[in-house]
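quick one, 227 residues, struct below
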Amino acid sequence: GDPGSGKTLVALSILIEAIGRGINAIYGLRRNGALVTTLRSSLNGDSSLNQLIYYINLPRGNSGIADSNWKMPHQDLIICDEAQRMLKDSFEVMPTRASVVVYFADETQILNWDEQGIVKNIKSGSEDAGANFEKLKDLPSGIRCRGAKPYSDFVETLIGNPSKYLNSNILNNPPWGESYKFKVFSDFNTFIQQLRHENIENDSRVALTASWTESRGDIKWRLNNRG
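---
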């Protein structure tokens, strides 16, 4: 599923449904400490649910779900969220940890060289472990994004092929309606002033965020150069 398609929401729903039915199930992530902290916080201290969230790899103790020092008994179900961040070798190990392993992944969100969670690696690792592999339909885009797929597609195109919008009037009548404002600023101070204006004059909640990647920003290059 694409960004904002609800993968984590579906993953957690499956986990809660499974536990409610008496199925031994756990939820795993490889590399997203912020999400783990948020999930555990959102569970409001429910220790029984907190104990179901694990890292897939823990280098210091080698005690993640896919590591050699993993001590938990065989599970009925393991749900791997953000599986695009998993190591290639993990896909052969995971079927030995549970009767059913479910992966939620988005190949376009791969950032670092060691992240090998593409469909062909998940499939080959599962089959090497003697497990049956089945790929389900992608989740539809945009349930987390108010502008839905039109806005997501706009951002992807703007980053990957900005020339498409050089002579376009798309921002005069954006397909995502009034869900988002889009503006390019020539200097940082003007940008900050606009945020303050939104905060004070329009009584809006405002946050300044930033992100970066350690790899080349060419999605096709990243996918073509994975083992």
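Residues 7-20 form the longest helix (14 residues).
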